[in-house]
Amino acid sequence: MAWDFETDPEFQEKLDWMDAFVREHVEPLDLAFPGSGEPYDRKNPTYKKITDPLKEEVRKQGLWACHLGPDLGGPGYGQVKLGLMNEILGRSLWAPNVFGCQAPDSGNAEILAHYGTEEQKKRYLQPLLDGEIVSCFSMTEPQAGADPREFKCRGRKEGNEWVISGEKYFSSHADFADFIIAMVITDPDVPVHQGASMVLIPAETPGIEIVRNVGVGGEPFGQGHHPHLRYDDVRVPEENLLGGPGQAFAIAQTRLGGGRIHHAMRTVASVKHALQMMCERALSRHTQGEQLAKKQMVQERIADSFVELEQFRLLVMYAAWHIDKGNKREARTYIAAVKVQMAKVLHDVVQRALHIHGALGCSNEMPLMRMWSSVPVMGIADGPTEVHKVTIAKAVLKQYEPYEGLWPRDFLPTRVEEARARFAEYIEHEVANQ
Ligand SMILES: Cc1cc2nc3c(=O)[nH]c(=O)nc-3n(C[C@H](O)[C@H](O)[C@H](O)COP(=O)(O)OP(=O)(O)OC[C@H]3O[C@@H](n4cnc5c(N)ncnc54)[C@H](O)[C@@H]3O)c2cc1C
Fold first, then answer.
1. Does residue 296 surpass a pLDDT of 80?
2. Which atom belonging to ligand 1 lies closest to the Cα atom of 173?
3. What is the pTM of this model?
4. CATH 1.10.540.10 domain range(s) in the chain
5. Does the domain spanning 250-397 belong to CATH 3.30.200.20?
6. For a pocket test of ligand 1, which of 172, 183, 267 has the largest count of ligand atoms closer than 8 A to its C-beta?
7. How far is CA 390 from CA 15, 103, 337, 387, 397, in A?
């Protein structure tokens, strides 16, 4: 019997160590250096000086790059264990960087590991895995994100080079990255699923222009780390086309699936944090001569938040389990499900926590408004909710068939008639005895 919701005591010790380490040594970084880009700035000597010993500590514990298997220098814990770890790391923007599992580098490392040449692995993958550099994934364009059929950024072959021209939007951390993996159209004459390719572009290649740095939420205009990029005849050697022409979608699927569930795992941490603040406030604040926690409407918010958090967490772990089991089809559906649910649960729980804090919740003196501004991001980044709902619906519908004729399979007059015919002998007997 394999239904089991327990954590191995040995692994629990690691989680306990992580919990204390993140609280004591990593969360203060979020307070001292709160910018959204700072954890990714590998060239800043101060951050390096502070984080290098922390990373060393993480390595000593065997917890570095836990999304990776032993072949790539990680412990190969699998997604379920990673889920438990991300429930801790998700409390801090710095923590994934200190533990070597931050997006989008985690996904880009997987791409290079699968599709890079030996030379590319040496030059980019190893320093990425070592946390010495960061990378960028450049897919969304100013005129199109969710629908790749609208993509225009082209890659054309000239001799033994690929020449890239076009624009990309929200290419996160391109301003810090040593290399970019860009999705470009290499064959516009076939459907985009066959005509798009992934290209590895070293950041120093001539022709890459940061048109503007784009920020999220309340970041000052012109600042932020999701640049609008222009590629103006950017030339890379032919071997920089990863996995062969037309393979972009197969490659993106590998990378985005992992990325989405890792975001969801970290969102469990944010939702837990919001619930903790909500409960502490309800127990500490008094109104009309009693604790807020005594008010039934407040209790309802706490109960709803608890139930939604637990449902979401179990869904995330179930999706993680499908990945670990190699159930590809199920994993795809469940990853889409957690992607949809993550935006909703974060929205509902953070809103309630913020509301219970009154003016303090709306202020910049609690983390709640910052969490609140991450809510819309969860519904958009890595594809909008609607697109994932379509994925789920298609997978669910595949399990069913249309019924024949006018009436549904569960049409009661037909079913009752059939059931009565089956038990006619007994029904007649009952009627006769009345
Ligand atoms: C913080 C952040 C970081 C990001 N980082 C990166 C990155 O590193 N690299 C990268 O390439 N991209 C990145 N993105 C971009 C992200 O992947 C896109 O925003 C996303 O794919 C949606 O594309 P779009 O913004 O063009 O919206 P659109 O595709 O224009 O969609 C806008 C809205 O239209 C509706 N819609 C779209 N399609 C459908 C549909 N099929 N059915 C019904 N309604 C629909 C939805 O309401 C959707 O929200 C990032 C985004 C954010 C917010």
1. yes
2. 8
3. 0.94
4. 9-116
5. no
6. 172
7. 36, 25, 10, 5, 10
